[in-house]
Amino acid sequence: MDLAIPSPPFLFKPQNLLRPSLLHSLNFESRVFAKKPLISRQNSRIRAQFLDQKVDEGFVLEDVPHLTNFLPDLPSYPNPLQKSQAYAIVKKTFVSPEDVVAKTIVVQKDSPRGVHFHRAGPREKVYFKSDEVRACIVTCGGLCPGINTVIREIVCGLNYMYGVSDILGIEGGYRGFYSKNTLTLTPKVVNDIHKRGGTFLRTSRGGHDTQKIVDNIQDRGINQVYIIGGDGTQRGAALIYKEVEKRGLPVAVAGVPKTIDNDIAVIDKSFGFDTAVEEAQRAINAAHVEVESVENGIGIVKLMGRYSGFIAMFATLASRDVDCCLIPESPFYLEGRDGLFEFIELRLKENGHVVIVVAEGAGQEYVAQSMLASERKDESGNRLLLDIGPWLSQKIKDHFTEDNKMPINLKYIDPTYMIRAIPSNASDNIYCTLLAQSAVHGAMAGYTGFTVGPVNSRHAYIPIARVTERTNTVKLTDRMWARLLASTNQPSFFSSDESVQEVTGETFDMINNKSTFT
């Protein structure tokens, strides 16, 4: 049968491509046309009708609270960014309410669309007048590279983008709210604090009293609260938001997740993590130089990682000088076939030296059994970890000098506080800027009870409950841990008949879950 083919100029007109008569005449059967919208070279979506397609099948939106949920008559205003020189040349200044970020991007053909989050960024309408905003910033929990950068960029973002000039810094963590410790923050005050480590506002653990904190927020006339801290701190932020909602206060509560261990769920990674991995290289390199320079040198480097071994794992992969990496998620044993002692002895015979990286939370069950330690907790409610570094060093010394009669030179390095105290590197500085500006855009747009972070490299607004419901840990069944094992060629410390999932579950139960407010 002869088929009349239209001329090329006709074919390349989008409006003609979708003409039903033409589609029928060409008898297209490709599922691409039947299932997916067509995209032109200019990325403009071409409208089409699809048969038997359920667009919303399996779509789940993790919504975040908004002030209008409990204050329906709250007025909105045009976003000042409409007149901003910085955004004048931006093609699309404002994020659409329908823009979402997918939690899972690797899917199969018949997979449901899955969980999505609101994309972060400026909205066309804001729910605060710039001259009526009184914002405050508080930092809680342990130190981490990048805290000062986040503080700086929240202040500069509020001032430069939205014209907000009334910004307070709450000193000393949560208890600073009711201890009356505050200072006025301006772009000039915070201009160079990103060059320093620690937190310009000082910090503390514990001290969370929801009623006192919200009373103080109300008394001071604060209507935007920016809370920088770990998962415990974010749980405290959720309680503050709930109390604010209960009292019907027009106060936006925004969280910026902070943990050097990278153990916060949902987000790609936490700020300060890249800096920590980079700085850990110095300690690993020092250990390698030391043990390479002596006979039978054994270097042990202890890194951060209370419940999650991400820093130890990534630092090991980045270094290539590490022979064995021990993390909380993977149990290990010292003696017997394929045990740590046997591996160390083999590497000493092969290379004359060995470097071991151990996360602070690794092997806690062994240390506890050996030292008959009682369970103590810090002010935040976290279990005080026993020091795996000196314990492991002594065990290795005893085994090789007393049992094996093999002379060794052991060097132990603990750089944890040095790493925590340094300023953030270039990568983390950029990341902290994006986090801070996303938080500012969200609060000005009236969102509350949310936290910010990248999900598959796209910044999103996430309900606080989602980032506090579980701890992000290294999955031994994922490829990244397999890459490490292939790189170090260390034993997996699993026998062939053991279930990885069962072991990791047992190990995780041995270390108390984090609780209260850090």
| Integer tally of domains | 3
* CATH class designation of the largest domain: Alpha Beta
Sequence stretches where pLDDT stays below 50 over 5 or more residues = 1-54, 496-518
Could you estimate the helical fraction of the residues in percent? Answer: 25-40%
Strand content: 15-25%
Binding site for substrate: 259-261, 304-306, 360, 417-420
Domain Phosphofructokinase: 135-441
Catalytic activity: beta-D-fructose 6-phosphate + ATP = beta-D-fructose 1,6-bisphosphate + ADP + H(+)
Keywords: Allosteric enzyme, ATP-binding, Cytoplasm, Glycolysis, Kinase, Magnesium, Metal-binding, Nucleotide-binding, Transferase
Question: Which descriptors would you attach to this protein?
Answer:
Rossmann fold, disordered N terminus, magnesium, nucleotide-binding, 18 strands, 518 residues, disordered C terminus, 15% strand, elongated, alpha/beta, 17 helices, 3 domains, ten-stranded mixed β-sheet, 35% helix, ATP-binding
Molecular structure report:
It contains 17 helices and 18 strands. The strands form 4 sheets. Strands 3, 5, 6, 8, 9, 10, 11, 12, 17 and 18 form a 10-stranded mixed β-sheet that branches. Strands 14-15-13-16 form a 4-stranded parallel β-sheet, sandwiched between helices. Strands 1-2 form a two-stranded antiparallel ribbon. Mean pLDDT is 85; it is low at 1-54 and 496-518. 43% of the residues are buried. The protein is of the alpha/beta class. It has 3 domains: 8-46, no CATH class; 125-270 and 424-468, Rossmann fold, CATH 3.40.50.450; 281-420 and 480-510, 3-Layer(aba) Sandwich (Rossmann fold). The protein has helices at 8-11, 14-17, 20-26, 31-35, 147-162, 210-220, 231-247, 273-292, 310-319, 340-351, 364-371, 388-403, 416-420, 426-444, 464-468, 479-488, 500-510, and strands spanning 38-39, 45-46, 59-62, 77-78, 100-102, 114-119, 125-126, 135-139, 167-170, 182-184, 224-229, 252-257, 297-303, 324-326, 353-359, 409-413, 450-455, 458-463. This is ATP-dependent 6-phosphofructokinase. It holds the Pfam family PFK. It is found in: Cytoplasm.
